[in-house]
Amino acid sequence: MANRTNVGGWLQGKTVRKGGITSTNAHSTRSNTPQVQSTSTTVFGGGVKDSSGRTSEYFSMDDQCPVCKSDRYLNPKLRLLVSSCYHKMCESCIDRLFTLGPAPCPICQKVLRKLAFTPQTFEDLTVEKEVAVRRRIAKEFNKRRDDFQDLRAYNDYLEEVEDLTFNLINDIDVPQTEARIAAHRAENAALIERNVQRDEQYAHALKEQEEIERQEREQRASEARREEEMEREEREKGRREIIDRLETSSKNAAKVIAKSRAEANKRSSARTAADTVLKSNAQLLRSRAAQSTVVPDVPHVPLQDDWYAYEDIYTLMSSYEDPYSEAVRKDREGIMRAGGYRVEEAWERALRSAVMGLDLLPLVGQGISDVDKDPSSQPDVVMAAA
Amino acid sequence: MAAENSTKATSAEAGSSSLGKKKPLYEASTQYKNWRYSPERLEDVRTQLNAAAVAVIRNTFEADEPGSSSGVAFLDAGEEQLLVKLYISKIPQLCGHFRFPEEVEATAISYLKRFYLKNTVMDWHPKNVMLTALFLATKTTNNPISLEAYTSNIPKTSPSDVLDLEFLVAQSLGFEFAVWHAHRALWGIWLDLQSLPDLSADLRPQDVYEIALKHVRASRFTDAELIYTPSQIALACLSIASPLICQRWADSKSAVSPSSQPLSEVLEDTLGAIKFMVMQAGQPPDVESVREVDRRLKLCKNPEKVVGSKAYLARIAEDEHRAEQKRNKKANDVRRALAEGDPFGSELTDKEKAERLAELDEDDD
């Protein structure tokens, strides 16, 4: 979904050039400024988009076309594109070689089309290739954890995907790998389609939520503006009123002013009350949204996974009369409790050690012993080691 | 994800092995697994160790000077034990001097006892082993002190005295440094007494605790910790101080204990045995008798470990010889590899690989 909307981005020619590491010579200031470049002559599907949906192109002052050997010095507008076999060449070479239809790559002889050239995003072309391969694989291998019975099967699946990816990236057994991918696609067509739809739905829901939040924000802002306006008007009115009253009434001036002030105060406090109601509504909404996305996480106590920690033999009281920990408990500033020391944990440890192994009978006779089963503990070995 | 996998696997294993019943935590400790003996076994280990050491030393004496071993009165296991006990009694003194917490003291004593279940006094004199065990205990219980500060406060001790033995001690302990102590169990019992409804504060005066603690300290002179669990030792010591309080607490635990065997039955015999042990052996040994043992130890020490003796020199020479051989072999290998062309050597065959691996294992010693 996100990809599709972004496709329009580069078709409209929003390509930003990015300076390479080597561009530190006199021209660097100029070359580092982003340039929007027309891409009408090339249509491509590669490149990596940033969050705003634009492709940042890799660009360096040392660029040289490997085919015609022209470089940035000879042709300041030199632009290198990457073929589907991951070889670079300049736009004029591409025009020259591929305008008349598919032709072999001048470097590796693979048959290429003009449309299959993409801008370069990464300095290292292997990274470029890996990103492209991974994107392609991710489109088809989109199963999730809940599509498998157990974790083991899911892990195996992930491993297989990683194997395929590795093979494609490093050109190992490509025909075989492609066959495996095709087989997978055939087998899981329905599932893949479903997962794609699910992803789209998720993205859609996310977008909707964002939209709602944005609207809410806007609404709040306009509300605040309106309120401010109202408040100003009211103040104005109040002032006029005071003047009017002072004109017409024969009472003490100070009293009249105090009375109108009190009225104004009452009005404004009513308004703030309404405000807080509104705010709390917004907060409620937000917290509900947060709840819907966060899966409740049961706290995990590793100690009690496989082991019985005697928890039913003792009960920890909330406080003990204990001269040992008196200093810690009386420490008001909490210096002694720094680093998360809790006297309750010390107590619990003591209680646990008071009941642990209470029912263990001592060993009798020549029973099991470590000396027999562990040859390394023989004394002569130790002596030799010294 | 893999971690999740493995925990699942182990929990499934534990579940199936004990039919859903979890294993008590204490049985996971190395103290339970590797340092728990029956009294007979303890005796046996010490006698065997002593006999083996005597045989080795007698051989060395004979190799040095035939017939020289006949007049030597070797120590027996009991005498060795006496000497160790004397040095155990030095540890609380040192700890008092350095103001180390009780944890350090108890741990060091455990280390010393455990060390002499794997080594004999005739090889390693307990004086330095004791210093090393204590130094090690400060580190393993998170009460570190710098080596300089440590040795400069002990007369006639240099840093190397402590460091030379450190690895040996750690190795003899099997690198199992965690020890469960009776004094913590006693503290726990004392805290837990407060949750007994019918035992008000004036029925459990603080000096009962102090007396019990004194007995816990005395129990460190005995083999109790190698036979019984810390909680049992603590309870026995409390029982010496106040049988009534002990009984009350034990009864309250009997009521909730999930074990199949009634707790009171287990405790009755066990507590009696520990009490006997603490009263009987819970004091430092008589210095005069130990002095006599120490005098004889000077004569029957393993000569390979006495600097300057013929056997010591022979051992050093042999070690050097072996090292020399190894060096020569290495140099030869390198020369040959260079001559063959590839400085990194040619591909190893499986047999050669196995040989190299065996060599590497030797290097580890």
From TrEMBL, chain A:
<protein>
    <submittedName>
        <fullName>CDK-activating kinase assembly factor</fullName>
    </submittedName>
</protein>
<keyword id="KW-0418">Kinase</keyword>
<keyword id="KW-0808">Transferase</keyword>
Automatic annotation (TrEMBL), chain B:
<protein>
    <submittedName>
        <fullName>Cyclin-like protein</fullName>
    </submittedName>
</protein>
